[in-house]
Amino acid sequence: MSVQSVDRALDVLEALADHGGEAGLSEIAAATGLPYGTIHRLLRTLLTRGYVRQESDRRYALGGGLVRLGGVAERMVAVWAQPYLTRLVELSGETANLAVLEGDFVVYVAQVSSPRRLRMFAEVGRRVLPHSTAVGKVLVADRSRAEALALLERTGMPRKTANTITEPAAMLAELDLVRTRGYALDLGEEELGVHCLAVPVHDGGRVVAAMSVSGPAERIDALDRDELAEGMRQLAAAFGTELR
Amino acid sequence: MSVQSVDRALDVLEALADHGGEAGLSEIAAATGLPYGTIHRLLRTLLTRGYVRQESDRRYALGGGLVRLGGVAERMVAVWAQPYLTRLVELSGETANLAVLEGDFVVYVAQVSSPRRLRMFAEVGRRVLPHSTAVGKVLVADRSRAEALALLERTGMPRKTANTITEPAAMLAELDLVRTRGYALDLGEEELGVHCLAVPVHDGGRVVAAMSVSGPAERIDALDRDELAEGMRQLAAAFGTELR
DNA sequence: ACTGATTTTCCGCATAATGGAAAGCGAGGG
DNA sequence: CCCTCGCTTTCCATTATGCGGAAAATCAGT
Prior knowledge:
The structure is a homodimer.
Chain A: H1 4-18, E1 22-23, H2 25-32, H3 36-48, E2 52-54, E3 60-62, H4 65-92, E4 95-102, E5 105-112, E6 127-128, H5 134-141, H6 145-155, H7 168-181, E7 184-187, E8 194-202, E9 207-216, H8 217-222, H9 225-243
Antiparallel strand pairs in A: 1-3, 2-3, 4-5, 4-9, 5-6, 7-8, 8-9
Chain B binds a DNA duplex through helix 3.
Protein name (chains A, B): Allantoin degradation transcriptional regulator AllR
InterPro entries (chains A, B): GAF-like_dom_sf, HTH_MetabolicPath_Reg, Tscrpt_reg_IclR_C, Tscrpt_reg_IclR_N, WH-like_DNA-bd_sf, WH_DNA-bd_sf
Keywords (chains A, B): DNA-binding, Transcription, Transcription regulation
């Protein structure tokens, strides 16, 4: 039914990604449960195609070829999201966004603007750090505590406003809250006066994107958060199912 | 030596990317020369893993899973580029950048700053449109005339300064020049007073990234362009070889 | 409802991938 | 300097696995 070697090659790539993009043969073996010989052979094929690279210490890393494919795929996702974002705007009256995690940045890949006079707009393509945005929190909350901490250390959690969370410990607590509550908030942490609410988009397994609404603090705060979150969860679930 | 089915699966993914991320079975067959049954089986495996998606009209498209892998790979590329960019700064005295094409945007993925007092900096993560930057021109010049035109139409080529090229026809001519000359210039087309020179980075086959130097117009113009371009070509070639 | 183009399924055959085990390599310690 | 240990790479007989031609099914257009 499914082509075994292709399936396994994908397992190898995903194992590499899970290890931060770089791993030794034995680490991959431990992660995938495949025999050494098999993994090595798969890596060699990916190697000659430029999708994997071997470093001087003989460890393996994800290669540049994936950047191209990822870029094209991203544009596709943006197109598919459009109708769901439109419905989210109808639901909330505020600007709706779709964002993904790319490296250590959050990237807004699609947006539908609110019809109101005062509104957020033109964020598509913008890159921001995860710690000061609702979408960022949702995306990072999917990672393990250790991965999240490593990412926060790399980015340094710079203060954007008086409300920005700049302490790793506080952020880990916030991420726990996001996980249990199922949605994340940004209360003027990226920009004063702008509040956001974001939910994760699952494609079956992991979180692949985050969907959010953002607008002036007063209007966002006037909405019933739990009710809005519930509606967004449904939209995100429908979108996630379509992606799969 | 190489795992046949994995190789072919990669052919299929690349064929999809070449067709703008979306194609029918027969188009893929034409592009790869593989029999229908084989392609269909490969697509089904990629489908169940979320790396390919089937649309309602039964055509196939690149799936969301690739966005994740691409993001991690991008971070790797940035790390590997660092030493080459450092050498480029030594060579030119100006800030050196590495950029890739992601969807319709150019993204700066790595940078090493010039030691001078007046310098460009903090561009990593920035997304700009291709038509007004040297790196953008280099990346788009690798695409076919038709693809380039489609991209330029989607982005609309907005004017950033008085020097910005806003006519598709003029840009196509400029891209021809870039191809024959081997490097691209940006003479204050993105920001007045800022000039750039960029060269392509090949990883054997296609252009995977662009390397550039940017700085104040007077200093960039004072450099010997052909000599600088030659030095940059060598660095880009070395980096490209390392990627492969 | 019919036709043509495109996609999907089927199945016997042979090839292509498998994986255990042995050889090679390199870093670190005695 | 040589030995050891952990990890990576190569090898090869075996058979499961993927192959691909051709038929069946589906869809769009007339």
